[in-house]
Design brief:
One of its GO terms (cellular component) is nucleus. This protein is α+β, with helices and mostly antiparallel strands. The protein has helices at about 10-15, 35-40, 65-75, 80-90, 100-110, 125-135; strands at about 40-45, 50-55, 60-65, 95, 120. The model is unreliable at about 1-30 (pLDDT under 50).
């Protein structure tokens, strides 16, 4: 079987193919984000007075979206589905974590133990989302 050429994280993230639990031909087994030591190094950063897990990918700091939702947005919106609807309307595309990043986030308690998928978002995009959620009330 011939393999497709490697694609960039941006290309994988901006693809029109929806994220699903089953692997797609354009996604490597480790997930759409490249599984490298640099991409998998997690640090805690302060966002709006709380510590959130983050990864630096291609020079961009990306924070854990479910953790940010839990800390800042769950009391403002109906649920995570509402957040994803808002992201789509705001034309913000979160980055899908690779398997190792998910493992690290579970180990830190940033996401629940049974979770096997997670998305990351830039601070700038989170601020736009937060403003949208607070103005929607």
């Amino acid at each position: 079987m011939a393999h497709a050429p490697p694609i960039s994280v941006a290309a994988a993230v901006n693809s029109s193919t929806p994220a699903t639990l089953s692997p797609s031909p354009s996604v490597t087994p480790s997930g759409p984000m490249e599984n490298t030591p640099q991409n998998n190094e997690c640090k805690m950063v302060e966002v709006r007075g709380a510590k959130l897990a983050s990864f630096t990918v291609n020079g961009n700091e990306l924070i854990c979206l479910p953790q940010a939702f839990d800390l800042f947005l769950k009391h403002l919106v109906g649920g995570l589905h509402t957040v994803y609807t808002k992201l789509k309307r705001l034309e913000i595309t979160p980055v899908v974590c690779n398997v190792e990043q998910v493992r690290v986030l579970r180990g830190l308690g940033a996401i629940q133990p049974g979770v096997n998928r997670c998305k990351l978002i830039s601070r700038k995009d989170f601020e736009a989302l937060y403003i949208d959620c607070t103005n929607a009330r």
